[in-house]
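Onboarding guide, step 5: your first structure request.
Type a short instruction followed by the sequence, for example:

Predict the 3D structure of this protein.
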Amino acid sequence: MTEAAKPLVTRKDIRLAMIGMVEGNGHPYSWSAIFNGYDPAVMEHCPYAAIPDYLGKEPKSAFGIGEAKVTHIWTDDPADAADVAKASLIKTVVGHPEDVIGEVDAVIVATDIGHEHVERCRPFIEAGLPAFIDKPLTDNENDLAQFITWERERKPFMSSSCMRYAREFEWHRESTDSLGELRLGTITTPKSWERYGIHALEGIYPILGTGFISARNNSAKGRDIVHFTHKSGAGIVVAAISDMYGAFGMLSLGGTKGNAQAMFGDTFFAFKAQLAAFIGYLESGRRPFPFTETVELMRMIIAGIKSRENGGETITLSDICPDGP
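The system replies with structure tokens like these:
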């Protein structure tokens, strides 16, 4: 009999720590602002111009997720922490990431370099502090095995892309019946397969569900076009091309009876829904989706890398961490 889930945090005013910041990723600014609100005059100087742009389109009432707040921050460059704290109304800047243990109820590891995540997360996971880990959870087999071990030890953590919650894809997540049997799906992203491929994958994955079988990538790094097979018989093509900024989240579905297209656009909605799912996990002890889905998605990321590095060889997903779920 499965043990009933228990809340990970019982207090309503959940205290969060924002941990880490790497080049090309401004999540500490935007995610903290979604929880705390922000100072528009300071946020105007955020080095990621898109962030004050989309935050500024939202009414003040859109900010906040229950009573949860980001109360502590640490970043790799101390100057970044000071700037984020001012812009996103964070009270405490710490000198070392481990300083937040015992001071907060959960951490958000806001970096998107997968091969760094085991060591960035280790102090918190081993201390039993719940963690949200930015996508991708990892990009290599050894680290995936470590996360699988921690999950088996019932360590509380989760990871996702905001694209799982994209407003524009919601209708397709609910049903593709009007399309008939799905034969082809495509989705796109800029930047690298290693860091942004998961955005595209997690945008399309909930539409098809579990059951991806193999991957083949005969592209060059930075121009990754990865072909996946699925148990349904559908072929899925996922493209991550470094400078394709005009096509972030361009989804296309083709079936035996119809077709559909959608384009991702509402960043604020997707981020807020993603972070609210983490707060729901803290309050209930129940993951918003099974960890097995995260494992399958990481196998897909790793398979895309392995295939590219082996001249386009077809990689069977079940051969990656075969002892995992």
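Each response can be followed by summary notes, for example: The mean pLDDT is 97.
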